[in-house]
Q: What sequence folds into this?
């Protein structure tokens, strides 16, 4: 009798503990269901729409997100560089390449919660397309560093993990058919502060 | 020997049952999270202000932002409304480099969005209403609603968000004023 009760307790513990923990874990990891990956960049075009999957819906409810609409824009997040290593705030990166069609785009360095990195200075850790210098083929080279850099400089500060968030506003790629042949810039690590 | 094997088999049985149960619990919890979340956008906004009251989402207005407005180069403002009480009209005066608007339902799902290219002369003047209210309005369109963008949304409670681009330091004041002067009102009809 006691043995039966014990076995039932094991079953219940696995069911409730495992079920709860697996939901928590699924909502915590950055990429999940419904992600579209282009190079190092990840986007969730369906997040925040009624057509989203249950995981995205739960994430929206838990984090109080108000996601960008299709007519507003589409955000891409990068957590690795081209070599597959995690982005670090103490490192210097070069972001280079062409950008897809949009009215304008913004790029910023973000911390774990995807808020902008605090620089402690009046210069934001953010750039936008109206202020960048372009190459003759219309591509853009951006240097991301603690230290001033020539050309387009994205200031970062601190240490630890970093993410890049690239958002295109009023863009045809936000409709999912446009996403198939989009090319996004590469992220190359140049070096790190000791 | 025989009883040990029987015990092991029953233990295995219990563990398997637990794993199947975990799958069921996983699905149930996942579907219940949106229903019971007290951290969703609506709940956060309702703690900060009343219905039909514009509420800045960026840190510029002072204090921690209510709902995280993601892009640091954007300012945003939001108001909650309830279409069961009547249709709601949102207006903002002035010209800014870019604005966009989203209508969310009670669960924070984006049901409609548009930007300044959609509006007449780039002026933000929008009315959110239910399909039933739309039929009434179509019958006899008031003079002052002629230039407005009508957003037909089959929802009750909802959230309206205006986002505006701040290209550089010099635009901060102008964009701030644009959002602070925006209004969110129950429209009599």
A:
């Amino acid at each position: 009798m006691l043995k039966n009760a014990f076995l039932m307790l094991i079953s219940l513990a696995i069911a409730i503990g495992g079920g709860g923990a697996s939901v928590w874990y699924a909502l915590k990891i950055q990429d999940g269901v419904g992600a579209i990956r282009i190079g190092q960049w990840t986007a969730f075009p369906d997040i925040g729409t009624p057509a989203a999957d249950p995981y995205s819906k739960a994430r929206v409810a838990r984090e109080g997100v108000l996601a960008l609409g299709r007519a507003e824009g589409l955000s891409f997040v990068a957590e690795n560089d081209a070599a597959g290593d995690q982005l670090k705030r103490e490192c210097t990166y070069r972001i280079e390449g062409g950008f897809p069609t949009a009215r304008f785009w913004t790029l910023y360095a973000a911390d774990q919660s995807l808020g902008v990195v605090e620089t402690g200075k009046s210069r934001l850790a953010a750039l936008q397309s109206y202020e960048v210098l372009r190459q003759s083929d219309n591509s853009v080279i951006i240097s991301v560093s603690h230290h001033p850099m020539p050309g387009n400089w994205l200031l970062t500060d601190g240490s630890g993990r970093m993410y890049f968030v690239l958002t295109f506003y009023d863009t045809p790629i936000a409709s999912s058919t446009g996403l198939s042949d989009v090319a996004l810039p590469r992220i190359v690590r140049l070096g790190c502060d000791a | 020997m025989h009883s040990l094997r029987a015990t092991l088999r029953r233990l295995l049985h219990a563990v398997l049952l637990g794993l199947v149960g975990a799958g069921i619990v996983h699905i149930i919890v996942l579907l219940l999270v949106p229903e019971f979340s007290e951290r969703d956008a609506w709940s956060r906004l309702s703690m900060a202000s009343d219905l039909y009251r514009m509420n800045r989402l960026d840190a510029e207005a002072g204090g921690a932002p209510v709902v995280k407005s993601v892009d640091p180069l954007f300012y945003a403002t939001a108001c909650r409304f309830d279409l069961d009480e009547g249709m709601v009209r949102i207006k903002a005066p002035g010209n800014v480099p870019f604005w966009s608007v989203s209508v969310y339902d009670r669960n924070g799902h984006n049901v409609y969005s548009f930007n300044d290219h959609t509006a007449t002369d780039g002026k933000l003047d929008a009315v959110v209403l239910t399909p039933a209210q739309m039929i009434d309005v179509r019958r006899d369109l008031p003079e002052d609603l002629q230039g407005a963008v009508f957003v037909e949304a089959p929802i009750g409670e909802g959230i309206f968000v205006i986002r505006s681009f701040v290209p550089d330091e010099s635009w901060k004041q102008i964009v701030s004023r644009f959002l602070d002067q925006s209004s969110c009102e129950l429209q009599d009809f």
The mean pLDDT of chain A is 87. Strands of chain A lie at 36-38, 41-43, 73-78, 91-97, 104-110, 126-128, 140-145, 152-155, 163-169, 186-192. The domain at 31-192 of chain A is CATH 2.60.120.600 (Jelly Rolls).
